[in-house]
Design a protein that fits this description.
Blueprint: E1 9-12, H1 16-28, E2 34-38, E3 48-49, H2 52-57, E4 62-65, H3 69-81, E5 85-88, H4 97-110, E6 114-116, H5 124-133, E7 135-144, H6 154-157, E8 166-173, H7 174-180, H8 186-193, E9 202-208, E10 215-222, E11 225-232, E12 235-236, E13 239-243, H9 245-255, E14 260-261, H10 266-284
Parallel strand pairs: 1-2, 1-4, 2-3, 4-5, 5-6, 7-9
Antiparallel strand pairs: 6-14, 7-10, 8-9, 10-11, 12-13
Length: 285
């Protein structure tokens, strides 16, 4: 029987996602592969370390980032420069082209790879395949119960005690969705990078009384035909803004070596193409 040889693994963060990953490793009998968990000073975690130098010294082969945008911005670059792969949960940081360029340079300097997992929405592999045939339009729709949008800009946009069944409170590009709703719309950038890029991918965020847990829907059409994929994922018990499936998806990406290299994704190449075109136009002006 073939067994999975799990690489030396570390985590950034030990919140809802990190704790579920560690619990899953226990159930699988694979906790010996978890060599470090980076948390703030004063916080406890299995194999806890409190700075990136100690994390690198633990010699992980891959680090799962599951601590939010601030931590991703602080730690991804030094890890990539140290030759360590990073599976990025807070993919919304890549809505900023300057951040993407910086991490691209870090990859080139150190050899670590920035990886994308399917996260809470499956179907990204199908979307990247469709991009080869030609995609004309992509929309990501995120439906969550009203209480899951509390603590976000939605509170300033609509009454979350609404009586109607559903309210669309955001409709725009994936780039703007990730900037305005960083804790809820990381998946939007994951979808965008898989095909058309953050400016051409459309996002709708919906406060819905029809669902009790997060429902994510990807819709795409083009030369390949039409594509619709949806997942109703149970919310993490300790954080209604996060799908419980996210932790399992990230861990399984590591176990199966199935992370998607961010710099090779169709949407990233689209960003590079438009950036080059803009610079060319500036030199012609």
């Amino acid at each position: 029987m073939t067994t999975i040889a799990l690489p030396r693994l570390a985590l950034i963060g030990y919140g809802a996602i990190g704790a579920e990953i560690e619990a899953c490793l226990k159930r699988l009998g694979e906790t010996d592969r978890l060599v470090a968990v980076l948390v703030r000073p004063g916080r406890s975690a299995p194999a806890a370390v409190h700075d990136v130098e100690a994390l690198i010294a633990a010699r992980p082969e891959v680090v799962i980032e599951c601590a939010g945008h601030e931590a991703a911005l602080a730690y991804c670059r030094p890890l990539l420069r140290a030759g360590i792969d990073v599976l990025l949960s807070s993919i919304g940081i890549l809505s900023d082209d300057a951040v993407l360029a910086d991490l691209t340079q870090a990859e080139a300097e150190g050899g670590g790879r920035l990886l994308l997992g399917a996260g809470a929405v499956a179907g990204l592999d199908g979307l990247t395949a469709a991009a080869l045939a030609g995609v004309d339009a992509v929309t990501y729709l995120s439906y969550k119960p009203p209480h899951a949008w509390r603590g976000t800009l939605a509170e300033q946009t609509i009454d979350l005690d609404h009586e109607v069944e559903e309210v669309v409170f955001f409709q725009g590009s994936a780039r703007q969705a990730a900037r305005d709703y960083p804790k809820n719309a990381n998946v939007a950038i994951a979808v965008a990078l898989s095909a058309l890029g953050p400016d051409r991918t459309q996002v709708k965020l919906v406060s819905s009384r029809k669902v009790t847990d997060p429902l994510g829907v990807i819709e795409a059409e083009g030369a390949f035909g039409r594509f619709r994929f949806e997942v109703l994922a149970l919310a993490a018990p300790s954080n209604p803004k996060t799908s419980a499936l996210t932790a399992y998806s990230l861990l399984q990406c590591v176990r199966l070596d199935a992370g998607l290299p961010v710099l090779l994704l169709p949407g990233v190449k689209t960003i590079a193409m438009f950036t080059h075109a803009d610079r060319f136009a500036e030199t012609r002006a």
